[in-house]
Amino acid sequence: MTRWTVSVSKNTDIAVRSFLAQRGMKKGDLSRFIEEAVKWRVLDQTIAEARGKFEDMAPDELDALIGEAVTAARQPAG
């Protein structure tokens, strides 16, 4: 585990701690909540970047490319 020191506004602190408390979560759950939130944000940003790279591609071309990738991924290894 790595320890982070982060700064958030007082309002954000109160909102998050209230949210966790309403769901019966305890103090230690804050770290898990933050880690999950960061993972989702990284995924969201990664998806947005990937979508941006295919903006100029025609929908039919994109569907074909996705179909090829799915077919390749389903092929047995070896």
Automatic annotation (TrEMBL):
- One protein family per Pfam: RHH_6
Question: What's an example Gene Ontology biological process for this entry?
Answer: regulation of DNA-templated transcription
What range(s) does the XACb0070 ribbon-helix-helix domain occupy?
Answer: 2-75
Q: Which InterPro entries match?
A: Arc_rbn_hlx_hlx, XACb0070_RHH_dom
User: Transmembrane stretches, by residue range?
Assistant: none
Q: What is this protein called?
A: XACb0070 ribbon-helix-helix domain-containing protein
Q: Which organism is it from?
A: Sphingobium baderi
